[in-house]
Amino acid sequence: MSDYSLNLPQTDFPMKANSAVREVEIQKRWDAEDVYAKAMKKRESSEKFVLHDGPPYLSSSKIHIGTALNKVLKDIVCKYKNQKGFYSPYVPGYDSHGLPIENAALKDVKGGRHSITPVELRKRCREFALSNLKGQEANFRRLGVWGDWEHPYITLDQKFEAAQIRVFGQMATKGFLYKGLKSVSWCPTCETALAEAEVEYADHKSHSIYVKFEVAPQSRAKLPKFIKDGDQVNFVIWTTTPWTLPANLGVALHPDFNYHFLKTKDHGVLVVSEGLKEAFLSTTGVGDVELLGEALGKELELIETKHPFIDRTSLVVLGGHVTNETGTGVVHTAPGHGPEDFELGAKYKLGVVSPVDERGIFTEEAGQFKGQFYEKANQPILDHLTELNKLLHHSTYSHSYPHCWRCKKPLIFRATEQWFASVDGFRKDALKAIDSVQWIPESGRNRIFNMVENRSDWCISRQRAWGVPIPVFYCEKCNKHLMTAESIEKVATAFEKYGSDSWWEKSPEELIGDVKCECGHGEFRKETDIMDVWFDSGTTWHGVLDMRKEQLKGAPCELYLEGSDQHRGWFQSSLLTSVAVSGKAPYKTVLTHGFVVDETGRKMSKSMGNVVEPDEVIKQYGADVLRLWVASVNYTDDIPIGKNMLAQLAEVYRKLRNTARYLLGNLSDFNPKTDRVAYEKLSPIDQFVLHRLSSLVKEVTEDFDRFEFFKYYQLLQNFCVVDLSSFYFDIAKDRLYTEAKNSESRRAVQTVLEEVLLTLVRIIAPVAPHLADDIWQHLPEAIKKFEATEESVLLTDFPVAQARFVDENLSQLFESLIDVRETVNKALEQARADKKIGKSTEAQVLIAVENAELRKKVESLGADLPGFFITSQATVQAEVNGKAAGNRLSEVKENGLTVVVFNAEGTKCARCWKFKTEVGTIKENPELCSSCLEALKES
RNA sequence: UGUCGCAUAGCUCAAUUAGCAGAGCACUUGCCUGAUAAGCGAGAGGUGGAGGUGCAAUUCCUUCUGUGGCAACCA
After folding, report:
1. Residue range(s) in chain A whose domain bears CATH number 3.30.2320.20
2. Which nucleotide is nearest to A833 (CA to C1')?
3. Positions on chain B within 7 A of a protein C-beta
4. Dihedral angle at the C-alpha atoms of A292, A298, A302, A306, nearest 10 degrees?
5. Which fold, A202-410?
6. Which nucleotide is nearest to A454 (CA to C1')?
7. Is the CB of A449 under 7 A from strand B?
8. Successive 10-residue mean pLDDT values, chain A, 939 residues
9. Which nucleotide is nearest to A443 (CA to C1')?
């Protein structure tokens, strides 16, 4: 019976994505046809929108999901901006120096870092980093990220190193760099100083000890009068780091605290603060005590005590940092091993003892503990204290403690000579610059502002080999350092030509020529420290943006887009160097995203087994589904991902795909040149869909401009599902399939479908470029020829919301009609549930509308009414009257609306499947309805 | 520990000034077999907990819990 020809959809566009194969093919075509370059060429004279890539670190060849998210976000922005008419290049970068790479490269070096030359070590580091680059690049490209992959920036490039040296030079010339002895965070495992940004707090179990410091005989006269001659007086300090005791030089009290002198049976007189006395007594259990008297901290200043086990005095000093929260109110002070101690020590000229070397091993200075790793020395020190009867109590104490963010081991403080960038010197400008930047989300402003406001100077020295050297020389005679604009420029020139290896390969003379020190001497040695790797990436605004000015127009650029941890990392290091040199921020807008967590909100970790690997997602679902995930989440907070979400995203992807397939299939015979129907001639529902389309374009444009992709995602999905698939597509099928091929009614639908398709495909392109381009390649030839001549959708312009499609009245009309349609659906469903009908064309509906205005609206559909409900007949009345007394299949009343369902009148037409009364009465063909007959004649 | 932010259906997101808490997906269920490893309909399902102020609270207040940032976590 179904021999009658219908206009069914025709397309080669496959329903199944087969992403694993198809996406790769598409990418190959992009590469082969150089689509990125063509897009850039197309916009070469347009306004620039530069997103500057924060360089991922090259310690691994495989990216994790957070990096994938970051790159995709960037790619969405760049692709969108390009479509919007900007010249928006993407130059990917890589961060290639630094400790983790050096440590990794050292893994298979027998004998460790000291067994090979720096140049040899650096060669291994370079090879390791560059091999990882290849892996990461492949990962990024598989995500569909486009960019100038042939010309990435790498911080180990000679030109980049030279630029970095020049930034250093400018900062030096401005007096923002100095060498100073300070207490810095030190990682004994990595054997280097660390900057604040590299410190991370984690729980740690420490010792908790109370140690007696006996007042020295020469100071007994300074003790309060209530102390009798025979009393041995001890200040009791509390510390969690026994190993710092060999470095002890002082005992700090709070000037305004009250200190109690407690006479004990076994320990002489003990001095602790009043506020901590009770806690102290109960913790240590020293037994009954007699309060001899009390004194303020400031009354005890400069009393000398005896170091518990070293022949040395330890001075009582006063410090505001002493608190009454834990311990004894008497603070063990080791200027060599604590920042506050260091400052206090400087104030009192205590000197500095730092008997721990760069590996955390005790030196000669530590006497009997020499040669031991600091942590290992805790126990012997405790034993020694016990032996000497200086230890009052010992237990453990859990607290958070600074750790190295690279190797995760506990840090120590070491007072050493380091190079610093004087943040104090340009803090005000930095804060001002922060306020000139747009931070998204806004909270980012406060986050970085507070950090910069309170941070101390930036320690840029690292005692390692894999990095850019600090370009300073020291006079062999007077030891004064040489750091002039000229000397630094000479180093920069040398690096530009030979790379930074030349620092190790060449002599000072070869590097800077014949230069004399102020003292007249002409022989120099080179600084051995290299720069903090954050200094490398912190200067990309110069090494990349400025150095590729023609392409990237120089700093500041429009956008930095990184994870929110970069407030203390790259955003800050970039800001500091840029402000120091130019007084400006290197970026106009900073956009941040949170961290990826699993579906239950937990951090991803190997041990929990909840890690989502990007390549596995791609293997199973394809890059576009992963990209769709990126677009679907509000990345301001933590970003969840997991099996459920991906499965759902795959469904949404499928919906997009099938929407496109319907559009493509039903446009197979449409020639825009000849078949298009003028807007005025479209039926109301057609016009309404165009209205919806134009609001979609308007809204998603706003969403893209605000980087709120999750709103775009919701809108896009809703449009495809609600406006198209279940509404317009469903209703339009009748016109598309059964009307004469060239009828105006059918061409009208196709006119709308074409507009929708060409708009949708371009809206999808930034987020799901493979899908969009796949659609593009499958466009019907006539459309390709006249409306879609670009070889890739990525070369098109983003759609513009068409004002001529906007019709608010029509929109309101259809809102009401859709409400009515929902009620009709309920009534039909009831009849269906009662097995009275199957498909809705087996029914006719009677709609009684009380409200005259609404009734008029429904009536306005006229002959389109049955089609609107996909029934065979539909009538509108003011109330259910006698005429409808037939066999009621169901009835639904709601909102002043009564819908009654009857069996459709007439007989089913064999072609269009609608029930018509004339079917069977037409002699020419009793199987068909009149319109089908006509349609057949016309075609 | 302090401080700031966040918390809406199983999931991803909405909800003007306090005014009946909405979508899509998933789920359940029915239909269709001319988008077919498709499509359509219907249904169920929710404001983290406990208080408070309002006629009325997702919205304002207090508190707790969870989560994230920052600061300190000390010696």
Report:
1. 819-905
2. B30
3. 4-6, 10-14, 23-26, 30-43, 66-75
4. 40
5. Isoleucyl-tRNA Synthetase; domain 2 (3.90.740)
6. B71
7. no
8. 81 94 96 97 96 95 94 97 97 94 88 88 95 97 96 96 97 93 83 77 79 84 80 86 86 84 83 81 77 82 83 84 79 84 80 83 80 83 82 78 78 87 91 92 87 87 92 93 94 95 94 88 92 94 96 94 91 95 95 90 81 93 96 90 92 95 97 97 96 95 93 94 96 96 97 97 97 97 95 96 94 93 95 94 94 94 95 92 73 91 94 95 94 90
9. B5
Cβ of A912 < 7 Å from strand B?
yes
Q: What is the pLDDT of residues A423-482, one digit of tens each?
A: 989 999 999 999 999 998 888 888 899 889 888 888 898 888 999 999 999 999 899 999
Q: Which residue is nearest to nucleotide B1 (CA to C1')?
A: A325
Task: Count CB neighbours of A613 within 10 A.
Answer: 14
CA–CA gap between residue A37 and residue A46 (Å, rounded): 15
Encode pLDDT of A737-778 as tens digits.
999 999 999 999 999 999 999 999 999 999 999 999 999 999
- Give residue A568's pLDDT: 87
Radius of gyration of chain A (CA): 39
What are the phi and psi torsion angles at A374 (to 5°)?
A: -55, -40
Q: Is the ipTM reported for this complex over the cut 0.90?
A: yes
Q: What pLDDT shows up at residue A78?
A: 97
Q: What is the CATH number of domain A631-806?
A: 1.10.730.20
Query: Tell me, which fold does domain A819-905 have in CATH?
Result: hypothetical protein PF0899 fold (3.30.2320)
Nucleotide showing the shortest C1' distance to residue A1 CA: B34
Residues 232-271 of A with CB under 7 A from strand B: 238-241, 244
Phi-psi region of A280 (alpha: psi -120 to 50; beta: other; left: phi over 0): alpha
Is A829 within 7 A of strand B by CB distance? yes
| Residue closest to B32 C1′ by Cα | A839
Predicted local confidence at residue A1, as pLDDT = 43
Q: Please give the Cα distance from A137 to A67 (Å, whole number).
A: 12
| CATH assignment of A47-175+427-450+537-593, among 3.30.1490.110, 3.30.2290.10, 3.40.50.620, 3.30.70.660 | 3.40.50.620
Cβ contact A447 with chain B strand, < 7 A: yes
Return the structure tokens found at A524: 């120099």
Say if CB A136 and CB A61 are below 8 A apart: yes
Which two structure tokens, joined as six digits, stand for A326?
């834990």
Report which of residues 327-346 in chain A place their beta carbon less than 7 angstroms from any atom of strand B. Answer: 327, 331-334, 338, 340-341
How far is the C-alpha of A408 from the C-alpha of A414, rounded, in Å? 18
